[in-house]
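>> Question from a student workshop board

For tomorrow's exercise we were told to take the sequence and the ligand below, predict the bound structure, and bring the output to class. My setup keeps failing. Could a helper post the expected result so I can at least see what it should look like? The ligand is flavin-adenine dinucleotide.
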Amino acid sequence: MAIVNINPANTWVNQHLNVSQAYDRLYDVFNPDVDGDPDFMSDLAPTISALAGIVGDAINDGKRLRALGGGWSLSTAAVTDGRLINTKNLNWRFPFGAAGVSPGYPGDPTLLMYTQAGMSVAGANNALFEQTRPQALKTSGASNGQTMVGAFSTGTHGSRFQFGAMQDYVVALHIIAGPGRILWLERASYPVMADHIVAGVGAQLIRDDTIFNSALVSFGSFGVVYGIVIETEPLYLLEEERHRLPLNPALRQAMRTLDFSGIPMPHPGEVPLHFEVVVDPHNPAGGGYVTTMYQRPYRTDYDPPTVSSSGLGPGDDLLAVMGQIGDVLGVIVAPLVNTLVTTQYSEFGPGTPKPAQIGTPGEIFFSTTSLQKEMSAEIGVALEDAERALDLMLALPEVTDYPGLVSFRYVKKSKALLAFTKFDTTCAIELPAAYADGTTSYYQAVWQGLEDAGIPFTLHWGQMNNFTPARVRAMYGTAVDDWIASRNSVLDPQSRAVFTSPFLEACGLA
Ligand SMILES: Cc1cc2nc3c(=O)[nH]c(=O)nc-3n(C[C@H](O)[C@H](O)[C@H](O)COP(=O)(O)OP(=O)(O)OC[C@H]3O[C@@H](n4cnc5c(N)ncnc54)[C@H](O)[C@@H]3O)c2cc1C
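>> Workshop helper replied:
Here is what the output should look like for this input. Compare the format with yours to find the bug.
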């Protein structure tokens, strides 16, 4: 028996305290107790049926419904004005071998893993590490407190610039799309699971590239994602270095081309896996903090990464750093940001007092802590527009009161129709900042400035935004129509109404 707790009407608040939402009911759903390891073919059924019942109740009661992930989004993508489902307790995972795979699957079946929706990124890293053949995620965000489904549903990414974002290694979606409609979605061009296994778990198989690519980044709008299949990599290490380099023509060229030949790199001639540049907009003359990570074969004789006194790990994200600023009311911002960056975002690696950091992806991107109230927006521009966007952001008058930083990461184009990483190589510019009026004024000025300058851009679905139907269409063009058509084909009108949220309506995607 699945266990479902129904919490009465109250207000839900996201982990970083900038979104609150009154709800009618909040469901906590738990897996049944089983003896030993759960069985893929029989032990999923109770929770699938409980969730399908919750969708049916929402239809009958005329309520809207949405699944929550880790609650790390800084936009209202995760909520709706009705009922919410806490999925975090559904965290079983199942590796599978050749017998479970479609004959057309081109990859290595031993590197596939099915995880239930609530598996956190940290949990996935641990689960993969524990496999007989240890494995790792191909990429993740800077922290790992998100659920896997919550993370890719908004297009979460790192800076593995020759790969892509998290949704780009998801190859099957197990979705509850209505009371009697349990779906297994894959690409027609990339079959994964053996048909008899899909039938065995009681799901209807739909293999269709457009539908799959629509459902991937759909922020809870295609139903409740119950489970996913991901492609992983054999376990590897990341060797991480951070150096402050002058923000000169050579670094600027690297930032707009990813040609690193003009800048000093820790391992000249070797292409890093991850490249990132952080600029303090109050002190661009101080240079850019360049973080590089190189992929190394796994071995056990290394010193795991160190944690700073504030609890931040080496891969820890800037948002965690900037959240420490707290209340900036009436304070001159520039010296505060300078001090925080120089103390918390230190250099390490050859030529600095601190050694390079070495760890598995789970050790480098280890933070799951919820920190202070904070704000963040992320903008996607084409690689070649990165420098123009930087100059525009540095020149805005509103930067004076902006208690934050500007960070540049790089991601290959995603197949997901509404991925904000939509350019051949997207430069994802994050603006992590303290919770302040100066932050929102700066975001507005940046978005307006990009529009005025005619620089095409997108915005991260899980971060702060100014989406309107017109802006979303300007960003994604006819992909919007294909996405809506896919959603209409997956959800019947009653279920569609249930999974339509105010956020979806504000984006013109309902
Ligand atoms: C400190 C911090 C650091 C961050 N770092 C990065 C980063 O490095 N890179 C980056 O790209 N982003 C980053 N983000 C943004 C964050 O990764 C995304 O907002 C992500 O979507 C949050 O995932 P979550 O699990 O918390 O999901 P939530 O925020 O709870 O939900 C996200 C979306 O997923 C949907 N969802 C969740 N579970 C299900 C389900 N089972 N079925 C259907 N829909 C579901 C929700 O409805 C919602 O639309 C960061 C955010 C914070 C606060």
